[in-house]
Amino acid sequence: MKKKKRFGKYNLSRGIYILPNIFTSLNIFCGFYAIVSSIDGKFVAAAISIIIAAVFDGLDGKIARATNTTSKFGIEYDSLSDLVSFGIAPGIMMYLWALKPLGRIGWLAAFLFMVCGALRLARFNAQSGTISSNSFVGLPIPAGAGMSATIVLLCHKLGIAGNANPVVILVILYILAFLMVSTIKYDSFKKPELFRKMNFNVLVTFILILIFIAAQPSIALFLLGFVYISSGPFIAIRRTIKNKKQKEDGTFEINEHRSTP
Q1: At a CB cut-off of 8 Å and minimum separation 6, what does 212 contact?
Q2: What was the pLDDT predicted at 189?
Q3: C-alpha dihedral over 3, 9, 11, 15, to 10 degrees?
Q4: Beta strand pairing status for 6-7 and 135-137?
Q5: Is residue 243 classed as helix, strand or coil in its secondary structure?
Q6: What is the C-alpha to C-alpha distance for residues 151 and 165, in angstroms, rounded to an integer?
Q7: Using CA atoms, how far apart are residues 14 and 27, in angstroms rounded to an integer?
Q8: How far apart are the first and last CA of the chain?
Q9: Residue 213, by phi and psi: left (phi above 0), alpha (psi -120 to 50) or beta?
Q10: Residue ranges per domain, the chain?
Q11: What does R_g of the chain's alpha carbons equal in angstroms?
Q12: What fold characterizes domain 6-192?
């Protein structure tokens, strides 16, 4: 008798969960459309598609957890979609938009961004279930791709898209690639207490941010992305300084205690 094939603990012969995988499919669709738009020279459309893909990527996981329809198949499909939408698509977009004049150095930078994103996804899958979900180890690949997309949108908004410095874009891609494979921690915003109670002032601030995004989406999204990407190194440096200070204070207290007659 022929055995039924299984994918992890999930029996593929029983079918797959439709709702979360529809959003994952929309994610990869936007990523593919971003690639096609980049090839056609429509870089604003490509950048917007990458940002929309990030929205779908955030929704599919939340819907799967809310409806208790998570599966091994969905996790793997989501990772493959993320590689297309947030690895290949932004790499091609940035190369064709600004890095092409640099030749080999330019496409190698785009490749580095893509491969670091793939490594980031592989590490995330390998560590899933073994580390806290309250933070990400390394910059999430959607954030790196989103930052690339907002840079394109901001330059077009300011009218400097055709004069973007390839070297500056090259350095930015290298920084984003390094942050993705680093061990710097970033907040995942998955803490339950964030959604249970909200201070009135926080609610007003959140509404003002939404108004700012609606009024100036290019500038607002760039600033939000920059703040989030900078938060990881900033918190890591502050934590290192704090730990060093505590260690020095502890050593001083021990030496002072020993010198007491």
Answers
A1: 220
A2: 75
A3: -160
A4: unpaired
A5: helix
A6: 12
A7: 24
A8: 85
A9: alpha
A10: 6-192
A11: 22
A12: Four Helix Bundle (Hemerythrin (Met), subunit A) (1.20.120)
Residues β-bridged to residue 11? 6
CB 51 within 8 A of CB 31: no
- Count of residues in the chain: 261
Instruction: Using the Cα atoms of residue 224, residue 183, residue 28 and residue 10 in order, give the sign of their dihedral.
Output: negative
Of 12-21, 33-42, 110-119, 239-248, the poorest mean pLDDT is in 12-21
Place of tokens 């299984």: 6
Give the number of other Cβ atoms within 10 Å of residue 230's Cβ: 11
Q: Are strands 185-187 and 10-11 parallel, antiparallel or unpaired?
A: unpaired
3-state secondary structure of 47: helix
User: What totals of helices (H) and strands (E) does the chain contain, helices first?
Assistant: 10, 4
What angle is formed at CA 45 by the lines to CA 124 and CA 22, rounded to 5 degrees?
A: 50
82 pLDDT more than 60: yes
Residue type for position 179: L
At 83-117, the pLDDT tens digits run 999 999 999 999 999 999 999 999 999 999 999 99
Tell me what the mean pLDDT of segment 18-22 comes to.
Answer: 87
Alpha carbon distance 233, 186 (integer Å): 9
pLDDT above 90 for 223? yes
For residue 169, what are the contacts with CB-CB under 8 A and spacing of at least 6? 94, 97, 98, 99, 151
